[in-house]
Amino acid sequence: MPDVDEIDHHVLRLLREDGRRTFSEMADKVGLSVAAVKRRVDRLRDIGVITGFTVQIDYARLGWGIEAFTELRYPGTTPVSDIVRTTAGVPEVQEVFTIAGDPDALIHVRVRDLGHLQQVIDRLRRAGDVTGTKTLLVLGSWTRDTPPEV
Predict the structure, then answer these.
(1) What's the whole-model pTM score?
(2) Is 129 helix (H, G, I), strand (E, B) or coil?
């Protein structure tokens, strides 16, 4: 496990709140110099704790307001790489989680409307060796962006 202290955790919290926050602003909040904060951020990137910077998008405002999770089932002999390959070719699939047990995969889908969702599910059912699906519509979401306290 990388050596990360409380100041590093504070810097990470500040970046999670606003990834565009300046080194100067973070330095004021953590009580270090701008150069020291930059070194910490660079080190956190170098050791793989920070893997990138991103933007949060309101997809509903872009016309992609429906999200769903679909369980996928495959024959027991299907390699995991085939599961990923089946779903990777479907642009509406946002994430793929291959999991142990039943089902074999859980995918996160983003679509324009319910008709579009039906088309995506039909496409997935025809792809690869899919033997069954179950789809759950997302009504709302909440994300914890901090690790659990141990």
Answers:
(1) 0.78
(2) coil
| Residue from 139, 130, 54, 33 nearest 90 by CA | 130
Tens digit of each residue's pLDDT (9 = 90 or more) over 69-103: 999 999 988 999 988 988 988 999 999 999 998 99
Residue 59, both tokens: 């997809």
Which tens digit of pLDDT belongs to each residue from 95-144? 999 999 899 999 999 999 999 999 999 999 998 789 999 999 999 998 88
Which residues, other chains included, contact 131 with Cβ-Cβ below 8 Å and sequence gap of 6+?
73, 74, 75
Tokens of 12: 């990470």
The H helix count followed by the E strand count for the chain is 5, 4
